[in-house]
Amino acid sequence: MDTYSRAPIVIDLFCGAGGLSTGLRQAGMDPRVAVDFDSNAIATYKANHPEAETILGDVSQVSGEQLKRLAGSDDIDLIAGGPSCQGFSTHGKRIQDDPRNFLFKHFVRLVDEVRPKMFLMENVRGMLTYGKGYFKKQIEEAFEEIGYRTAFAQVCAADYGVPQLRHRVLFIGTRVDHIELSFPKPTHGDRKLGLKQYLTVADALGDLPLMKGNFKQEVRSYVSPPQNEFQHYARKGHGNALTMHVSNKLSDQAQRIADFVRQGQGLRSVPPERLPDRFKKMRTIGNGALRRDCTTLYYRLDPQRPSYTITCYYRNVASGPFLHPWEDRSLSHREAARLMSFPDYYRFEGSNFTRQIGNAVPVLMAKAIGLEIVKSLRNAERRPLRYSKVA
Questions:
Q1: From CA 278, how far away is CA 299, in angstroms rounded?
Q2: How far apart are the C-alpha atoms of 328 and 210, rounded to whole Å?
Q3: How many angstroms separate the Cα of 330 from the Cα of each of 213, 290, 296, 316, 353?
Q4: 265 close to 235: Cβ distance less than 8 angstroms
Q5: Please, are residues 198 and 306 in contact by the beta-carbon 8 Å criterion?
Q6: What is the pLDDT of residue 289?
Q7: Whole-prediction pTM value?
Q8: Within a domain: residue 205?
Q9: CATH of the domain at 84
């Protein structure tokens, strides 16, 4: 029987709102089971992937047999997911002993129990340098012990048509001897190399209406037909009713700062004498010179460039590069979702939308990775399967 007369079966651990599963499905894969401890994320996942089974709970309590039973198959092609990694994220305090850093051990355990042909694990770039590569070595050794060859790469979401400079590390692995481990080549970047131009904030958001002081209107209309390939993608299968395009009015302090911030500028563009006292301290070091960091606090997005990383704090302009390029306000949920390349039909359920969107895997990056994995699986099916000795 041709192994891939069907779509490759996927189990998504730490699934969050479903960005990874959505991209893998766009690549022709079949997410059958998803696991997460966040009830809001699971509600969103169910709303957008009704055909998949979901487990709401602690991954440490999940077994491989349970996953295979819910998937309806013992022949799983891929286990994918991004174990929580805030303990060594560069956006927060980097704490080596943060228990979230070791959730990958349950990922490894479930790979060992399910024995998929391949795995995919996504993580933050900071884990490569923390402790001189301690975590990277741990991950590679853990998979080697259960009989999986591994490879890793650093990728940027913008290289795959996502309008966002989001850098991540990917680990892939296989127990099948002749499956080649490879990563997708960039499709966007330097046009001199024959690549498409990076998608910009304007490319992503240009058809969305400005709010003009009305920050809470629940449903709005697009201001134009789709103007480019990305906007066509975002609006495919969706009507003219734009949802979740709501935002926050700036605080008085944020407004006083925003008055001085032009597109592509941040806190350092504000005259020091106009800064609140706590920011004056942030502007200088011991010898009185201006600091070189804090460059993206109160940063107004440059419409002619991809956005910076969308985090869980995109509604707080004081925390990073989340000041709207054309209006004095934070990004809306829909704008943040667009910058993560979620289609506009995608429904976010429950609450904590900022966490659901900011923690997601960008959809189009996931699609590019998925296409590469599908290619590896299909190439391997043309040869007799040979597995590593560890069973």
A1: 17
A2: 11
A3: 12, 26, 14, 7, 14
A4: no
A5: yes
A6: 58
A7: 0.90
A8: no
A9: 3.40.50.150
